[in-house]
Design brief:
Elements: H1 4-9, E1 43-46, E2 53-60, E3 66-76, E4 79-89, E5 104-106, E6 119-123, E7 129-140, E8 143-153, E9 159-165, E10 178-186, E11 191-199, E12 206-215, E13 222-224, E14 233-236, E15 248-256, E16 261-269, E17 279-287, E18 292-297, E19 310-318, E20 326-336, E21 339-349, E22 355-357, E23 368-371, E24 382-390, E25 396-406, E26 409-419, E27 436-439, E28 448-455, E29 462-469, E30 474-481
Antiparallel strand pairs: 1-30, 2-3, 3-4, 4-5, 6-7, 7-8, 8-9, 10-11, 11-12, 12-13, 12-14, 15-16, 16-17, 17-18, 19-20, 20-21, 21-22, 21-23, 24-25, 25-26, 26-27, 28-29, 29-30
């Protein structure tokens, strides 16, 4: 979910017990029926003294079981190693022992002392999951590179498919890091598309990489899609200076059904603005033959919202009527009161088949809406939208990281914000019906890092994952919040 800006911002999660008082159930509040250890209401922190455990992405299957992917440290012959781990929990938070016997599955490549924290876990059509991530491995000192790994795990916790992907575009190993960003599964065509930030030979020069796999509908096996290209891989870039390139950092990939194409979104350093420090949101669209259909950034369209714009997640929405509009909705960050504010924006496919900011969305016809959480804390906060989802009624739920300084110490929390279909905060949801909710899990430290959000397809309950620092170690976090299924008729649009 999977995303680099989540790491940059050093963000997290923070508890407010007064989330709305007028409803029978406080929307956005913790659901205290969810807990594995019996001592925390609505969340669970998993860890081991002396080691860091990180939650990075979360999904919910058709039975309401929660799956979490992340990195766990452990001891191997006196050395601290890292391993990629998948857990499955029952709706009450307890581990599901029907999944790989104990509810916990460590993926089978050799452990390494270094690894990425970028993961994506997505459901297949039979309550199995695809898990993707990148792993930095050193063959020798100063001889390291990062490759991509994708696993297909069935409903019982058995690996039925796996694929290693490496772009290796740099001239030397130290310029061959391929860092996982996101992936999307398209069950109608049995394809899985992955995007990654791939290094080139020049320093600070990276491209958008996209790889497409076939997922066998019977066995679940994964294989390179040679119909996308000979090796199943393509690149896209925005080299504005046309000399040594620039950093192109993908963070999201979605499937756009009307044209049978994949859209990759992210952020690109293009050096615009008064301080020549401009980052812009950027997009590449590929068809199933691997052709680049179009690419654009907010600077190339001449509509730069600001000289520093960051994209973290995307969703596609097609109006459920004949001839309905197509929308590309995203979240990230724009400069704001505390350096950055979370943003949600919407592009619309126009009559000449081009994406343009939708003037009917957000504030004053801008096509976007920014949200800050500084009213909750003293002083301004740095707010990044890190992950999002689109509910069936068209409402948008955004998970944001919130960070601030307190007596010279970094603090962080996570925030949820809900928007109507037109991009306005939903005033029937959240703290005092502001459209926002904020949580933290260790009030003595307040260093909680938000990574991903998902929703139960049946109950509409919200689940988030990330990590919480206890003063010594990070612990993997999973939390459950009430949503609005029983209040769906109350929303203002």
């Amino acid at each position: 979910m999977k995303k680099k800006m989540k790491q940059w911002a050093k963000h997290g999660l923070a508890l407010m017990g007064f989330i709305g008082t007028a409803s029978a159930i406080n929307l956005g509040a913790l659901d205290d029926t969810f807990s594995q250890d019996g001592t925390t209401d609505g969340w669970d922190l998993s860890g081991q003294p002396g080691y860091h455990w990180y939650g990075s992405d979360v999904a919910v299957d058709s039975q309401g079981r929660i799956l979490i992917a992340g990195t766990h440290q452990y001891d191997l012959n006196g050395n601290t190693e890292l391993v990629a781990r998948v857990e499955r929990r029952l709706p009450d938070g307890t581990l599901d022992h029907s999944f790989d016997f104990d509810g916990i599955m460590d993926l089978g490549i050799p452990p390494a002392p270094q690894a990425q924290l970028n993961y994506e876990i997505i459901m297949d059509s039979s309550d199995g999951v695809f898990v993707g991530y990148s792993r930095l491995y050193c063959q020798a000192t100063n001889d390291c590179e990062s490759d991509l790994y994708v696993y297909h795990i069935n409903v019982n916790g058995v690996i039925v498919g796996n694929q290693q992907i490496d772009f290796d575009l740099g001239a030397t190993n130290d310029r061959r890091d391929d860092d996982f960003a996101d992936m999307v599964y398209v069950p109608s065509i049995n394809k899985l598309a992955i995007t990654a930030e791939v290094e080139l030979s020049n320093a600070n020069d990276t491209d958008y990489g996209i790889a497409v796999l076939n997922a066998d509908p019977v066995s679940g096996a994964l294989s390179i899609d040679t119909g996308f290209s000979v090796d199943g891989k393509r690149q896209c870039y925005f080299d504005q200076n046309n000399v040594s390139g620039s950093r192109d950092m993908p963070t999201a990939i979605v499937w756009y059904g009307p044209t049978n194409s994949f859209i990759v979104g992210g952020s690109t350093f293009e050096g615009n603005g008064l301080n020549s420090d401009g980052w812009n949101m950027s997009f590449c669209e590929f068809n199933l033959a691997g052709d680049l259909v179009r690419s654009w950034s907010t600077i190339s369209q001449g509509i730069a919202i600001d000289s520093r714009e960051f994209l973290n997640d995307l969703v596609v929405y097609q109006e459920p009527v004949l001839g309905g509009n197509s929308y590309l909705i995203g979240t990230g960050a724009l400069p704001g009161a505390g350096e950055f504010d979370s943003v949600v924006f919407r592009y619309k496919m126009n009559q000449i088949s081009q994406w343009e900011l939708d003037s009917s969305f957000g504030t004053n016809g801008t096509g976007y809406q920014t949200t800050g959480f500084q009213y909750i804390f003293q002083g301004d906060t740095r707010d990044f939208g890190v992950n999002m989802l689109l509910e069936e009624d068209g409402q948008i739920l955004v998970l944001s990281s919130i960070s601030w300084d307190e007596s010279g110490q970094p603090k962080s929390a996570f925030g949820l914000s809900k928007y109507t279909v037109d991009g306005h905060l939903n005033t029937n949801w959240g703290i005092a019906k502001t459209g926002k909710a904020v949580h933290t899990f260790d009030i003595s430290v307040r260093w909680d890092i938000a990574e991903a959000v998902t929703i139960d397809p049946i109950t509409e309950e919200i689940y988030v994952t990330g990590m919480s620092y206890d003063g010594l170690n990070f612990k993997s976090t999973v939390a459950n919040m009430h949503n609005d299924s029983i209040f769906a008729s109350n929303f203002d649009f």
